[in-house]
Specification:
41% of the residues lie in helices and 17% in strands. It has eight helices and seven strands; from the N terminus they run βαβαβαβαβαβαααβ. It has a seven-stranded parallel beta sheet with strand order 3-2-1-4-5-6-7, sandwiched between helices.
């Protein structure tokens, strides 16, 4: 009597996270790595933050690839996209996290500054999904880190607010492109979060934000990543903008 065994080949899920070396992006990378994903991420300028992530890579089985590639310039960002194409033929999760801002009155924002914000926050993420579209597996998860400022106008950061509002619209439109594939497209729209970006805010401004927020504080990074985890696990959340704001502007 003879027996034959069919060997099952386990394929590791692949995720992409833009801007994953600090702040919310770093938290997202760690969440995905803890779930067994192989993760590709990029950064623009902060070599020290990238090095810190590399040092953590061993405990995740060296499943994290970090590439220096700026999203403000398509030629630079293309090096990131091409590296992913060389390393994998399938993608199971894309988290469009990177963002940029210019805090100036409208009349003082020049063309280059406006285009910089749009390229980092919006355009590069469209290019990423477009250029890797054929490698996105069925039943994948595409998530955008939007912003409360894409919902509520902000007086001193119009470029940021507009770029995030456009990102929300991009997500909703992409739902149609992925309909009937099992792939979901959602937005996590945080309010104010305790990240390096917020560290240097004057205490007076922080207290003003607290006073407008029902929870009376900023969110933790884990509170944002737990919302993302919900979207990873729930296939019926699709085309949604999940506002994680602690009740901002509740009055």
């Amino acid at each position: 009597m003879s027996f034959s065994f069919k060997q099952e080949i386990m394929v590791t899920k692949t995720a992409i996270v833009t801007g994953g070396t600090k702040g919310i992006g770093k938290g997202i990378c760690k969440l995905l790595l803890s779930k067994g994903y192989t993760v590709f991420t990029n950064y623009s300028t902060d070599d020290l933050a990238a090095q810190s992530m590399i040092q953590d890579n061993k405990k995740y089985g060296n499943r994290l690839t970090i590439i220096k590639a700026s999203q403000s310039n398509y030629t630079s960002f293309l090096t990131f996209i091409e590296r992913i194409k060389q390393k994998t033929d399938h993608i199971d999760c894309i988290v469009c996290n990177s963002g940029a801002t210019v805090r100036k009155p409208v009349q003082e924002i020049d063309n280059g500054e406006w285009e910089y914000v749009m390229n980092v926050t919006l355009n590069s993420h469209f290019y990423l999904i477009r250029d890797l579209f054929d490698r996105i597996n069925p039943n994948s998860r595409i998530l955008f880190i939007g912003s409360l400022m894409g919902i509520h106008p902000h007086a001193t950061s119009v470029a940021y607010g507009v770029s995030k509002a456009a990102l929300h619209a991009l997500a909703k439109n992409l739902v149609k492109d992925f309909a009937h594939t099992g792939t979901t497209v959602n937005v996590i729209a945080p309010g104010f979060v305790e990240t390096d970006w917020q560290t240097n805010k004057p205490e007076e401004i922080r207290q003003n934000i607290y006073s407008k927020t029902a929870n009376g504080r900023f969110a933790t990074i884990q509170e944002i990543t737990s919302a993302l985890d919900l979207c990873l696990n729930n296939e019926f959340i699709n085309g949604s903008i999940l506002e994680i704001s602690g009740g901002y502007s509740y009055k």
